[in-house]
Structure formats: structure tokens, C-alpha cells
Amino acid sequence: MKKIKYFYxxxxxxxxxxxxxLRVKLLRILxxxxxxxxxxxxxxxxxxxxxxxxKEKVLKQQNDDLKQSYRVFNEKIRLLQQQMTELxxxxxxVYRTIFEAAPIPDxxxxxxxxxxxxxxxxxxxxxxxxxxxxxxxxxxxxxxxAYQEKSYKEIDGMLTNKEKLLAAIPAIQPVANxxxxxxxxxxxYRIDPVYKVAKFHAGLDFAAxxxxxxxxxxxxxxxxxxxNAGGYGNHVVINHGYGYETLYGHMYKIKSKPxxxxxxxxxxGYVGSTGKSTGPHCHYEVHRSGERIDPVYYFSNxxxxxxxxxxxxxxxxxxxxxx
Length: 323
Fold this sequence. Notes:
By secondary structure, the protein is of the alpha+beta class. The chain has helices at residues 22-50, 54-98, 106-116, 129-160, 162-168, 305-316, and strands spanning 6-9, 14-17, 183-185, 188-191, 198-201, 204-207, 213-215, 220-228, 233-241, 244-249, 251-254, 261-262, 267-271, 281-288, 291-293. The strands form 4 sheets. Strands 3, 6, 8, 9, 10, 12, 14 and 15 form an 8-stranded antiparallel β-sheet that branches. Strands 7-13-11 form a 3-stranded antiparallel β-sheet, with no helix packed on it. The protein has a two-stranded antiparallel sheet with strand order 1-2.
């Protein structure tokens, strides 16, 4: 049974029944509800802070799985990059060395791919750091693979033309020199026969009687066959392709003409002493990619190992050149 409360009214000097106004009742109810809501909010906030919801648990598990997958994927990318680097090193240091082709630096590989747009960048993958890093690694790897494929196609072409390449590399002496007694002066600084000072001698001098045949040392096309006022006299230049050229100077007579196709061992002229020369000889030079190099390393078809060793010593002697 609900208790009835009374209060003493000092004006009427009587005990009267206590009646709570409706407004007070509403305020009390609203206060209770507000306190309940605030308390519930605090409890829920604390619960969500320390206790995961089922959906959060699923998302967290998926996130952990993705991170693990990324680590595995990243390790695979690292191994692929190592393998790609090894292939590029073999390409530059083995395959291209065999065919005497210039190595290709990484910077050229990447720039060439971007210029030709052979590899499209992966787009729309999101902005997270993991995705951005993976995208960058994949793009870089794809560019390297694409250029490596192009490089191997070039090497495949070299293999196809292997016989032509070997035939185009100088490999014999320009005059008959079986006894190795015709090397008069080697490559490097030698005493100039006219000025009597040390000057750079860009080839080998083969002393021989006037009229001795001079042979093409590799297959090629006659580029020049005329008189050179700069000192070579009657001379012939052969373009062998693949970056190789050979020069034969001081001829008594030229047998070939520009545009002629010649084979290794074919007579192109005869020993003489025209131009800046102090005696009959053949001045012989080998040029590779525009650079003059020592011809002594291009007699592989002519010499045994012992003969080559002897020829090196003869060519290295410090003496006076013929031109």
C-alpha cells in the first residue's frame, strides 16, 4: 500500500496531504532517463574500447591475414628482383661480352621503357602505404623484365648472325708473317722516324718487300681506297660492321675500290712506302666503335699460344716506327 505523506501548514495550523506537482514529476522522470542514457553511453564506450565486436574481430583477422600475405608477397618480389639482377648481370657480363656488345646500364633500361610506354602503371589500387609500395616494386620489376626481354631478343639476333659476327671480327695478320719476323713497330708511344720524338703510334707496322700482298683481316665493305695526304699515303679502310673497321696504309698499289665486298684473306693491295713512310711496310690499325685499339689481340686465327706470346713481346719493344 502506497504511503501518504502529510505536512504541517503553518498558515492554516493543520496537517495537509502532500501533493507533488506534475511538472516536478516530469522533471524527475527526465532526469532519471538522462542519467540512464549517460551511464549506458559510458558503459558502451568502455565496452567498445576493450572488447571487440564480432564484426571488428572478423575485420581484424582479415587485416592480419592481409599483412601476412603482403609479407610473403614482398619476399617473393625481393627474390624476383634478385633473379632479375642476376639475369641482367649475366646479360651484360657474359652474353654481351661473348658478342663484344656494349653492356646496358639499369638507368637506360628504365628510361627506355618509360619512353616507349611498354609497361602501363598500375592505377586505382588505393592510397595505402602497403599498396603504394607494392605497386612501385611491381612497376619497376615489370619494366626491368620488359627491357630484359628486348635485350635477349637482340642477343638472339646475334646468335642467329653468329657466323657473320665471327667473320666480321679481324682475326689474321694483314701480310704473310708465319715466322713472325715482319713486326717492325708496335702499338703505343714510339720514336717518330721524321721528328725523332715519342709520338703515339696507333697500329702495327709490318715490314715487307714492296709488292707483298696485303690481305683483308675480316669480311667487310671497302669504305675508303685512295691517297691520304695526312700521312697514310695510299690506304684502304674496311668497314666490317658490328663497330669494327681496319686501316691499311702506305700501299704501293690499291687493288680494291670503295663499295667492294671483301672476304677475310682477300688481297686488297700491295705493300709500299707512300705517304709519311721511311721504308716499305704495311701500317695496320683496328678501330672498334671509333676507338683505335691494339691490333695484336686480333690475330686469333693465325697464331698458336706460343706464337702469340712471342708476338706480344715483339710488339711491345720500344723502337722507332716506320711512319
